[in-house]
Write a structure and sequence with these properties.
Radius of gyration: 18 Å
Strand content: 35-45%
Oligomer: single chain
Number of helices: 4
Helix content: 10-25%
Number of strands: 15
Shape: elongated
Strand order of the largest sheet: 5-4-15-12-7-8
Structural class: alpha+beta
CATH class of the largest domain: Mainly Beta
CATH topology of the largest domain: Tumour Suppressor Smad4
Number of domains: 2
CATH superfamily of the largest domain: Probable inorganic polyphosphate/atp-NAD kinase, domain 2
């Protein structure tokens, strides 16, 4: 559709699905749970519509990640790319590197590579840092690493992150934003880098720090 924006009604999953298939800014109205990606709560719909009519809004652009498996491009990621053991209670060994540098070899339930937007989601629950949504960076985090020294690392946008599963019979599941998934094995090359596409969010004045305080910090404290 050739439109100025799309308004979604639902939760964060609805926003993510829309951003995967749309090529225009998205405004989320939260009818789900936490709704971190949704700018508007249900009680503020009427006042928000009037702001849109008056042009009192801005567009916030955040990066997407390009995901390649054996040279085949998968859907872009708005939130995160997850490579996870496909069996409960079975950890996997992962080699993480860039094109020119080895980063880490670790045993864990899984590896998450997130965007700044995704840093407040699954990566955050795994102990990763919160990254301001307009920054250009990727975050590598581990799910339940066997060695406690394994910590999240922020990677600059020009890098290509390579994830390799170590060992035969160590099948995993690759998931993108919880919307797309496929099986991967030690024979597969998984590459994650910055996409040429971007995610566009409509904002009507609520700051990123307000959302962090209200939807992440406040919920944890209370």
């Amino acid at each position: 559709m050739d439109v100025d924006m799309i308004i979604t009604i639902g939760g964060d999953g609805t926003v993510l699905r829309t951003l995967q298939v749309a090529r225009c800014p998205v405004l989320g109205i939260n009818m789900g749970g936490l709704g971190f990606l949704s700018e508007v709560e249900i009680g503020d719909v009427e006042s928000t519509i009037y702001k849109l009519i008056r042009g009192e809004y801005s567009i916030e652009r955040s990066l997407k990640m390009r995901v390649m498996v054996n040279g085949m491009r998968l859907p872009d990621s708005v939130n995160e790319v997850l490579v996870h053991s496909n069996k409960i209670s079975k950890i996997r060994r992962f080699s993480i590197s860039t094109r020119n540098n080895f980063i880490d070899l670790t045993a864990a339930d899984g590896v998450i590579v997130s965007t700044p937007v995704g840093s407040t989601s699954y990566s955050f629950s795994a102990g990763g840092p919160i990254i301001y949504p307009t920054l250009k960076a990727m975050v590598i985090s581990y799910l339940a690493p066997f060695i406690s020294r394994s910590r999240s690392i922020v990677v600059p946008p020009e890098e290509t992150i390579q994830i390799k599963i170590i060992g035969a019979g160590q099948d995993c599941l690759l998931a993108i934003d919880g919307q797309y998934q496929q099986q991967v094995t030690s024979k597969d090359e998984i590459l994650v880098t910055i996409s040429e596409n971007s995610a566009e969010f409509v904002t009507v004045g609520n700051s990123f720090f307000d959302r962090v305080r209200e939807k992440l910090i406040k919920n944890v404290v209370n």
